[in-house]
Write a structure and sequence with these properties.
This protein is α+β, with helices and mostly antiparallel strands. It is 63% helix and 10% strand. A 5-stranded antiparallel beta sheet has the order 1-2-3-5-4. The protein is elongated. It starts with a strand and ends with a helix.
Length: 278
Amino acid sequence: MSKKKKIEVQGNEITVVDYNEQDYISLTDIAKHKTDDTSAVIGNWMRNRNTIEYLGIWETLYNPNFKPIEFEGFRNQAGLNAFTLSPKKWVDTTNAAGIIVKAGRYGGTFAHKDIAFKFASWISVEFELYIIKEFQRLKEEEQKQLGWTAKRELAKINYRIHTDAIKENLIPKHLSKQQISFVYANEADILNMALFGKTAKQWRDENPDKKGNIRDYANASQLVCLSNLENLNAVFINDGLPQSERLTKLNQIAINQMSILLQSHTPLLNPKNTDDEL
């Protein structure tokens, strides 16, 4: 299981984990909405004939290693007074994949979201709707973060293209490491000035309590624009344009691109103010 995520549903904290690239939700946490005796609640749900049939159909659809004969044995016993079924017994006997039993202090019973929502509806229809709502909100936030991360990685790739252009065209031979670092930093600040209107040092001076650099706090639109600027600056360097001319061109491009990207929001840069400052 990967790193745990949490959603809050009617005052209850519900754990969501990623397992084999699928979302599994804690049945133990869901059961706490009803009682502290979570094992008993889950056991009562699992001994229900409708539950067993649902679990069996789910496993048949998604789990090629599911054991149908063993499943039939449980289904035939369902409804009998003496019949009991725990999550572990279900998994061990039928080789089920939709439920996971994790031992230990921070363990519990987890189920694929399809099954978890079914359990939640058994607990309370209202509670089920709230869980679905909060789960959807979590997935939307993950998609936003995924988009930001992808754009950040794109910016890193373009940064490599940018630095290669600097290395090939702007750095004389036999410079010291310190001198080379200065050239790279100087060129990076050309992009910072063009897009953010300030150098990396100016940003650090203005934000002494923040970790990282100015680009770590860029939004998705800024990262897209930054990627484009890095590519264009590499082209301008290869064409032999002087730094001052490149800065002017890049700033004009940044203003235009950010205006398009943020046309439904307040523009990051004011064209008139930017031109005056530069």
